[in-house]
């Protein structure tokens, strides 16, 4: 996660925004506790990770403020795709697409018909290519510098 944040954001964010990203992004261990977090390995190396959630938090790590563990209602709410990271050595090899497909399938099996996520600028092209629609663009400055985040959604 640290390498993905540090390296893959370089074309999109300045140094202060990357440092701020380290504060607002990362793993929410609630996903592990819920059994909805996945890793992909390639030749024994960790290639990527990501998960989905039936909880209200859209993005953020354990240390992020404003997390909300309230359960969502699949009949009216969208599941969340969360904490998607690809190791820089494994970009553009289908790792992100694989994780998204696993997350979408698992959320669908739990009765969700829509998913939402908070895309970084580095992740946005992948999500668009996978059928996600853009929503509201926000700037999260809780880590110091304002980091652009695009809320996106998809019907599954």
Which range does the strand content fall in? Answer: 25-35%
Broad shape: globular
Structural class: alpha+beta
Q: Count helical runs.
A: 5
The SSE order reads HHHEEEHEHEE
Instruction: Give a count of the beta strands, DSSP E runs of length 2 or more.
Output: 6
Characterize the quaternary organization of these chains. single chain
**Residue-averaged pLDDT:** 96
Largest sheet: number of strands, sense, barrel closure:
6 strands, mixed
Poorly predicted ranges (pLDDT <50, ≥5 residues)? none
Structure in words:
This protein is of the alpha+beta class. It contains 5 helices and 6 strands. It has helices spanning 2-8, 15-24, 30-34, 95-109, 124-129; strands at 37-42, 45-53, 79-86, 114-119, 133-140, 147-155. The chain has a 6-stranded mixed β-sheet with strand order 1-2-3-4-6-5. The longest helix has 15 residues, at 95-109.
Condensed summary:
This protein is 28% helix and 29% strand.
Could you name the key traits of this structure?
alpha+beta; 6-stranded mixed β-sheet; 6 strands; 156 residues
Fold blueprint:
Blueprint: H1 2-8, H2 15-24, H3 30-34, E1 37-42, E2 45-53, E3 79-86, H4 95-109, E4 114-119, H5 124-129, E5 133-140, E6 147-155
Parallel strand pairs: 3-4
Antiparallel strand pairs: 1-2, 2-3, 4-6, 5-6
